[in-house]
Amino acid sequence: MSCNFGEKVKITIFGQSHSEAIGVVIDGLPAGKKIDMEKVFAFMSRRAPGRNKFSTPRQEKDKPEILSGLVDGITCGAPLCAVIRNEDTRSKDYENLKKVPRPAHADFTAFFKHNGSNDIRGGGNFSGRMTAPLCFAGAVCMQLLEEKGIKIGAHIEKIAGVYDLRYDSANVDFEDIDKKEFSVIDDNAGEKMRERIEEARANGDSVGGVIECAITGLPVGIGEPMFDGMENVISHAIFAVPAVKGIEFGLGFDVADLKGSENNDSFSFCDGKFATDTNNHGGILGGISSSMPVIFRVAIKPTPSIAKEQKSVNLITHEEENLVIKGRHDPCIVPRAVPCIEAAAAVALMNLI
Amino acid sequence: MSCNFGEKVKITIFGQSHSEAIGVVIDGLPAGKKIDMEKVFAFMSRRAPGRNKFSTPRQEKDKPEILSGLVDGITCGAPLCAVIRNEDTRSKDYENLKKVPRPAHADFTAFFKHNGSNDIRGGGNFSGRMTAPLCFAGAVCMQLLEEKGIKIGAHIEKIAGVYDLRYDSANVDFEDIDKKEFSVIDDNAGEKMRERIEEARANGDSVGGVIECAITGLPVGIGEPMFDGMENVISHAIFAVPAVKGIEFGLGFDVADLKGSENNDSFSFCDGKFATDTNNHGGILGGISSSMPVIFRVAIKPTPSIAKEQKSVNLITHEEENLVIKGRHDPCIVPRAVPCIEAAAAVALMNLI
Amino acid sequence: MSCNFGEKVKITIFGQSHSEAIGVVIDGLPAGKKIDMEKVFAFMSRRAPGRNKFSTPRQEKDKPEILSGLVDGITCGAPLCAVIRNEDTRSKDYENLKKVPRPAHADFTAFFKHNGSNDIRGGGNFSGRMTAPLCFAGAVCMQLLEEKGIKIGAHIEKIAGVYDLRYDSANVDFEDIDKKEFSVIDDNAGEKMRERIEEARANGDSVGGVIECAITGLPVGIGEPMFDGMENVISHAIFAVPAVKGIEFGLGFDVADLKGSENNDSFSFCDGKFATDTNNHGGILGGISSSMPVIFRVAIKPTPSIAKEQKSVNLITHEEENLVIKGRHDPCIVPRAVPCIEAAAAVALMNLI
Amino acid sequence: MSCNFGEKVKITIFGQSHSEAIGVVIDGLPAGKKIDMEKVFAFMSRRAPGRNKFSTPRQEKDKPEILSGLVDGITCGAPLCAVIRNEDTRSKDYENLKKVPRPAHADFTAFFKHNGSNDIRGGGNFSGRMTAPLCFAGAVCMQLLEEKGIKIGAHIEKIAGVYDLRYDSANVDFEDIDKKEFSVIDDNAGEKMRERIEEARANGDSVGGVIECAITGLPVGIGEPMFDGMENVISHAIFAVPAVKGIEFGLGFDVADLKGSENNDSFSFCDGKFATDTNNHGGILGGISSSMPVIFRVAIKPTPSIAKEQKSVNLITHEEENLVIKGRHDPCIVPRAVPCIEAAAAVALMNLI
User: Does any domain span residue B108?
Assistant: First the structure.
């Protein structure tokens, strides 16, 4: 099964890049909750293309229509379904791809999985466009989480070798970052990142990066040991975002080079609550939230669609072919992936709490 | 729910470090399959403590008893249950920990999650000991996977800053590595790693590392886009192994620094089959296996239990206390975690195929 | 969770009687299958209201729009989503019901479950109208089942005390019955049933009945013992159809009065295949299909909405009130429930095979 | 998957009639709850064989050993595992059954499902013996439900045509019935039932019956519409008890003969709470509890194992054979099934609340 996530709040995403519509069903929302749709749309616009020169010029209205689940803007206990019509699609761009798969795309694997019946247009249901309904679901979940004092924020930690500052709960307010056109803490770093992206575009190439996400306001005790820990569930959801190649919690892969005495966070009690003096554990111990901020980082690969000619192979004739991808594509999807990571985290959290 | 994994082959793990027994139920195995129990026990012995001087001297027989699911060593379609008795437990070692949580352990989070009713003895069901039944399940699954030509192997890629060679399907045969007392490709690197471990032990400290795992023989087309891709399911299972803080597939976090033209693997056709010229994608595109080896790496934190005195806080009095952990502990759990990672991968794969 | 069913082929139903639309997402369909939409619509029309004088005159076009999952009418491996717009809704009919629940309806329980935020209009997501997307899903599944030689048919066994003949694989062809305006084997019995329905309507009352369903062409070996047997899964799905109050397999409740020697079906081998001489077991032994037709019967209560004045209570003032239900309602929903039962069985079967 | 049930409190049952042991893992129990094991054993003894002359003389100690999940008799948040050793098994009784299936047993379907690898001894995992761990789980769940004021009771409503009184909350206290050797309200009816059972035994035959179950103390609002209603989940669990052929809620199949005006339960408010004047709906409206007692009835077929010679067929030679079942068997399993139905209901409820 590909499109379902969650047991408590169940998300079902459907659609293909060039089908009539894409959408999401959210089941299990509590009844009687006012959903601020303007806020949902604002969140989704952070992901939408055409926002600035760093993203694909494909114009989408992307305004979801609510088919069910709300009465006068308030949840009624029935599943909430939202659909987004697909418009401005140029399906002919993709005709030749059916036989000659694009490197680093799912064309190849989807072809064999579905015996050639996969929808190749715009990447079908493998398209990054499928993150639009994910963002809708995430935005709804975030409103419910905020009611409990839980906030989720993310920023670009790195693009093409240029680093932003790391998240620090003392110095970073994600509400400020969300308003920026480019989601970084340090705008100077952001400026350099943009240069690298522009450079890649000029060269018909693309660049990747890392997104850092923080979840604050979680009480102690969320999650389970073994298979239903915070890391299990969050990583399960995050890998639904295309182009993610890795995830790490707390110090992540850096722990490999530390001693226990360096990595262990000592406990303390101050201001009437328990805490750890450092947060190397990233807010999770034994799969369970410690009440410290949950911190994780996600590796995003460079956009596979590049303008440069690439070598591929014809799936029918078995002969090598040089491939030039037309279409319109982001030279870097990291900026648009930021809200997607937040959304996936929100959906995961709703199933943990 | 903490102890269940999978929909096709469902694993249910139970027990606590110092309860009567620990064990696992495996449901959904095909009937009529001969399970080579000697091979299962051999696999489990790679995880077992007391194997060499680098692991805890706690002696466990750890020989599972099969309660159900086999008739004359052959699966009969009923769930397979195996239990391992807990012996040689010194529960008194843990008495004071109930109130003063060990840094980087789950004592703190488990205490609050279960209002103090958690089983603190030996870490309860948060103990690394729970990976013994996981290894049993993994070993059974691996035999069924091998029938289909699928092999899973892992090695220590790094401990305390010392690197082993990276996996290369041309040069590495995991059957050779499995026989080694220390699971590395390059024995010289292994020697240096052991020195660092010994050093850490001498200092009352511990060290972490990275494990690299490879899955070969997978056909193209396994996995799904979105929520049930190879990465989603494998990462979900891998984080069940305590001390894992990160996972990356293919080039993983290194993709962040690459250009699309560098990262994209071009397709080719040779020796009668499709392949990619490089394997930066780690055998997975769009969540689906490409038939190239699936490669992933896992970050393991340094053993939290160290002999050095540490600062903690009394959960009842709220006062800081210095904590000295007695008990017996590995200065590095990476070597013993190698089969656990393989086992978790095997269990995940059984649910993907 | 209310709207999801299945693990292999997952059905997600959304909508309320008077929301913008109702619909269904079907995930897990094999790719490359031609779906005959005319046949799907024909199936759905058997459930649709306004077909004859025995059903509510509310006019609905009820023609589903396919949003995703098909390319040129062929499944592409992505989830199939179909939506049906809600038109011709007269929401004002329901205004007073919010406070004064209709007897035998879900108004009362939904009010308390959702603290008064439930969508009362037309019964919200408790409406029989939600069986339209169920029928869509069932019709799609039935086409895939028919490819494997599996057929599902149902007929009205009883309405208001009038009995149809019982199903007998030798004498009944469901294709004939499906074409009838009234789904009975014996048209004389059907005529009497209609008289009773008409009588009930004239009296402002309603009547109930029993539907018998048969599944043929199942191979031996489908289903599991304990919790995932044929009976467990079919009954789970069937109770999704509103107004169902009971289900029985084979001889059902009549077995209570039989001796073992009467009830046990003896085995035989003829025409190259195993069979039982009788089919008291209804095609299921130990939760698993025996290759004999699966037979089950479902009790349908009389339509709760009747024109007669009824006693209820005001949920706010706690005072008794006499209630007259306006709206438009079937005096007997049994005829329209026939395809719903088939559809629920089809959805269940897709998850068993 | 055969052996798992539930999402909130997950039950995993394992074992075969003649394997080393049978048992159950219960995951998701709240921590800190005292489980009265004497009470659990007392409950299980109601199901145990050898209790009186109406059940099989096979002697089992059937005392479960707790392997995990409890510390000093109190739940610790880890999965609770209990095992029961299989003793006094005479496997040779079953040798010839592998080839010649017993009528109305699962021998036939299990043989084909598992290609002859099924465990035929004592019925393997299709044995009624598997209800012992189900009763263990149910007894644990019932203690937690009772804390919330929810009680589950059942009685024999009918055996071999002899009826007990129907349940009436005003006149029946299940605590009294549980103490009886024969679970009926009216002891005179019970006496006649026993005569019929004895008669069947004398004739080498068996008889079936009906069990009625009542759940009291449920608050309004438990359950969901569509696929996760009370009826869906309870029926799913109940069909795990072997020999069940039907289930009905409230008036059940009798509603088919009623008019809406007769079947609809009018609402009222008295003694400070809402109620219905009658309880034809059996405590469930729209899948959701109404706070009235939940009432359901279950049809149990006559024991398939009878002493009389029966006709079967040899699965290898395809020739008809006359079969005489040796072994030791109940002429009526209805009395022993009473606690099993209660247990299945308890497990279902724990997943609804």
Answer: yes
pLDDT of residue A61: 66
Site of tokens 């494998």:
B234
pLDDT in the model for residue A58: 47
What is the predicted pLDDT for the residue at D58?
Answer: 47
Q: Indicate if the pLDDT at residue D2 is higher than 80.
A: no
> What are the CA-CA distances from residue B1 to residues B227, B348, D5, D230 (Å)?
19, 17, 12, 21
The most confident of A57-66, B89-98, C1-10, by mean pLDDT: C1-10
Residue D204's closest chain C neighbor by CA?
C261
Residue D86 belongs to what domain range? 4-352
**pLDDT cut 70: percent of chain A above it:** 93
Cβ separation of A227 and B2 shorter than 8 Å? Answer: yes
Nearest CA to B142 out of B76, B67, B217, B73 is that of B217
Residue A169 — very low, low, confident or very high, per pLDDT cuts 50/70/90? confident
Task: Please report the DSSP string for B15-43 in residue order.
Answer: E-TTSSEEEEEEE-PPTT-B--HHHHHHH
Q: What pLDDT does A36 receive?
A: 96
- The CATH number of residue B82's host domain is 3.60.150.10
More confident residue, D53 or B188: B188
Report the predicted TM-score, pTM, of the whole model to 2 decimal places. 0.94
Q: In the prediction, which pLDDT does A57 show?
A: 46
Residue A352 falls within a domain, yes or no?
A: no
Write down the H helix ranges in B229-333. Answer: 230-238, 260-263
Percentage helix, strand, coil, to 5, in chain D? 35, 25, 45
ipTM over 0.90: yes
> Inter-axis angle of helices B131-147 and B37-47, to 10 degrees?
130
Per-residue DSSP letter, D125: G
Ordered alpha helix ranges (H), chain C = 37-47, 107-113, 131-147, 174-179, 187-202, 230-238, 260-263, 334-350
Helices (H) and strands (E) in chain D, counts: 8, 18
> How far apart, in whole angstroms, are the C-alpha atoms of residue C312 and residue C99?
10
Q: How many residues does chain B have?
A: 353
Q: What is the pLDDT of residue B3?
A: 84
Give the gap in angstroms from C-alpha C16 to the nearest C-alpha of chain A: 6
For the residues D205-220, what does the mean pLDDT come to?
97
Secondary structure of residue B60 in the 3-state scheme: coil
Tell me the sheet residues that pair with C159: C162, C209
What CA–CA distances, in Å, run from A230 to A172, A211, C234, C346?
23, 18, 34, 37
State whether B285 and A104 contact (CB < 8 Å).
yes
- Tell me if A114 and C77 make a contact (CB, 8 A cut-off): yes
Is B142 strand, coil or helix? helix
Q: Which of D104, D113, D264 sits opposite C263 (nearest CB)?
A: D104
Contact A1 C19 (CB under 8 A): no
Tally of domains within chain C? 1
**Shortest CA distance to A82 belongs to which of A35, A137, A125?**
A137
Helix (H) or strand (E) holding D300: strand D294-300
| Nearest-angstrom CA–CA distance, D318 and D331 | 30
Residue B253 forms part of a structural domain: yes
Contact A288 B110 (CB under 8 A): yes
Are the beta carbons of B289 and B278 closer than 8 angstroms?
A: no
> Is residue A56 pLDDT above 70, yes or no?
no
Amino acid sitting at position C9 = V
Longest dimension (CA), chain B: 71
Considering only CB atoms, D117 lies closest to which of B68, B76, B115, namely B76
- The D residues from 124 to 183 touching C (CB cutoff 8 Å) are 125-126, 130, 158-161
Tokens of C131: 């069986």
For D291-348, the pLDDT digits (tens) are: 999 999 999 999 999 999 999 999 999 999 999 887 777 899 999 999 999 999 999 9
- Of A138-147, A191-200, B96-105, give the lowest mean pLDDT range: B96-105
Cβ proximity of A154 and A333 under 8 Å: no
